[in-house]
Every structure is written in C-alpha cells, then in structure tokens.
Amino acid sequence: MKTAQTTAAIEELFRKTVKKDSQIYNAYMLVNSEKHDIYINMAEGSTGSMPANPQQPYYIASVSKLISAVLTSILVEKGIISFEDPIARYLEPDLLENLHVYKGTDYTNDIKIKHLLNHTSGLHDFFEDKPKQGKSFVDLILEEPSRSWTAKEGIIWAKQHLEPHSPPGKGFHYSDTGYHLLGLIIEKVTDKPYGEVLREYIFQPLEMKHSYLVFSEPIENSDTPLAHLYLNNINITDYKCLSVMHAGGGIISTNEDLLKFMKALVRHELISESTIAKMKQNCSKFFIGIDYGYGVMNFKTIPVLMPEKYNVWGNAGSTGTFMFYHPATETYLIGGLNHFRLNRKGIKLMLQTIDRILK
C-alpha cells in the first residue's frame, strides 16, 4: 500500500510541476528504488504534435559532465592519462597560447586535468560568462543557428573575448571551456572523435542504445523523436550551433539509458570504488550545500539550508536535467525539463521527490 501511495504522490508532483509552468514544454522523470519497490518512468508535455513519451531521447546538458568525468577516470585507470597531468602535455600550442593569462601572468602550463574536472582551472566559461564588449556566446549562436561550432572554435572564441578568474587550483569557477579542453584531450590520447570514445567505453558496454553525442549516431535509433529543447522559449532542437556543447553538455540520452549508467557507477562496474571516492573528495564549493568534485555534484548537510535527508550525488544541467543517487533510500532520480535556465527547478523537483519517498 505504501508503494502505491508513494508512486501516486510522485506522479502527481511531477505532472503538477510541469502543467503549472509555462516554460516547461516537455519533461521526463524516472524514479527507481529497489529498496522501496518503486519504478516510475514518466513524461509530460509534447514534442510538436506528439505527446511526450517516457522512452524519448533528450539533451541531458551538463549531466554530460559526469559521463565525461567517468570516461576520463576510465582512461586514468587504464594508465593512459593521470589526473595530475598538465594539459599542455596533450593540447596543440596554438590552442594553448594565451589560454590562461591572469593579471599579466600566464598560468596555462599550470593547469592540470584535475583542474578541468572540478572547475578549479580558473578559466572562463564560454557559455555563461559575458564579455566586457560585444555579444555573449549565447547571443551569437542564436543569431547564427545554422553555423556548426567545433569545441576548439568555442575555446578560441573564449580566449579572445573572456578573462580568466583565478590561478589554477586557487578558486572555483564553473567552466564549460574546461570540459571542452578535457574532451579534446580524450580525443588526442585515443586518436578518435569524442562521440566514438563515448560509444566504445560507455554506451556499448552498458547497452545504452539510444545515447549519443549531438550530431553523431546512436547504437540503435529510437522509435520516438528527439524531445524539443528550448532557450528563451525558442525551439532550438535542430540548431547546428548545438555542436559546440561537446564534452560539456552535448550528450543525448533517455531516462532508461541514464539509469543503466548510474547503476553501473554505483555498483563500481565502470570504475573502482576508490576512483569514485577520489572523484567525490577532490571538490570545491559550488553552492551552499553542494560541492563539485571530478564531474560529481555532492549534496552535503548544512543545518536548516540543506538537511541530511537530501544527501545525494550525481550531476545536474542548466536545462533542468538531473541524474542523482540517494544512498539513504537507494533511489535513482533522473529527469529533464528541456529549457535552459531551469536548473533550479529541476533540482527542486528532485528534492521534492525525495520528500515523497521519505514520507
């Protein structure tokens, strides 16, 4: 009886959250706890004339960073790279030139792979930071939706228009620029495009058949179309400029594929327990009650502000995406709201879902 009541409460929360918010055109959420005998896979809204379907693939935005970090950790465990390696060992001199000049000092050679992973490189964020003069990157891509951007082009734009924030290791600043550099390093050491490396090391082994990097191909085509993605209430799903999302946010997946990933991560089937511990421990303060490690957001107890019951780990994205594990209830919480700038609403939905499970 308790399971049925909990399931009904979660479903009601999800559908009410979507229906009352004019910015949410389609949304997806999966909640799974074997401990509490819960499995819910839901969708609400629509993609064009088609009702949203729980099996539908959608952009997972910065949830991609956890997958990127795990991919990096796999290569570390294989001895191909090290968290301590300087990025200058792998990247081209023209890309590195004037990459990190802070208050007249060039710190480029001091940046290590670990700094990219936990956003302590001090580098700018090409997607969120605004230049002192000229248009922001978001404005630029909205004006040129048909232009394809490579990760390298995004980094070069950032070098030319943005300023670093601190020396490496001396401060936290969320940086998509850093994760794009990480993606280029992975391409360098594997001699393969980033999408192919994802498929080889993660998607194929876990049978994540409907997951792929934007503008590449899934292992198996979905029976449902790609969910519409919005920015400023504009449908940008087919914009070629989304190619720039790359290692920082360019993965498309489904609720069920992401559940396969998180279960494999929790069960130490992708990387060892000690490596996951390192990813969680080498962290910096992201927000009050949230630390950011190597691609991992870790919610920690802050009296009143962040109660212990919300202790989860995983990652979240600016489109209201989330992929977390709640150890206390052994629950996986996965979903997305598919509209940029809805990150807080996605996290709120996840925390409210935990409330329903704990009642």
Describe the protein's architecture and organization.
- The chain has 359 residues and is an alpha+beta fold.
- It has a domain at 2-61 and 250-358.
- It is 35% helix and 17% strand.
- It contains twelve helices and 16 strands.
- It has helices at 2-19, 64-77, 93-96, 113-117, 137-143, 151-161, 176-190, 194-203, 246-249, 255-266, 273-281, 343-358; strands spanning 26-33, 38-47, 50-51, 58-59, 101-102, 105-106, 212-213, 230-231, 234-235, 251-253, 284-287, 290-292, 297-299, 313-316, 322-326, 331-336.
- The strands form four sheets. The protein has a nine-stranded antiparallel sheet with strand order 3-2-1-16-15-14-13-12-11, with helices on both faces.
- Helix 2 runs parallel beside helix 7 and helix 2 crosses helix 8.
- Keywords: Hydrolase.
- This is Serine hydrolase.
- GO terms for molecular function: hydrolase activity.
Mean pLDDT across all amino acids: 95
Helix and strand composition category? alpha+beta
The fraction of residues assigned to DSSP E strands is: 15-25%
> How many individual helices?
12
Strand order of the largest sheet: 3-2-1-16-15-14-13-12-11
How many β strands by DSSP? Answer: 16
Q: What does the largest sheet look like?
A: 9 strands, antiparallel
Helix content: 25-40%
Question: Helix and strand succession?
Answer: HEEEEHHEEHHHHHEEEHEHHEEEEEEH
End-to-end distance, in Å?
Answer: 13 Å
Q: Unreliable stretches, pLDDT < 50, 5 or more residues? A: none
Rg over CA atoms: 20 Å
* Inertia-based shape: globular
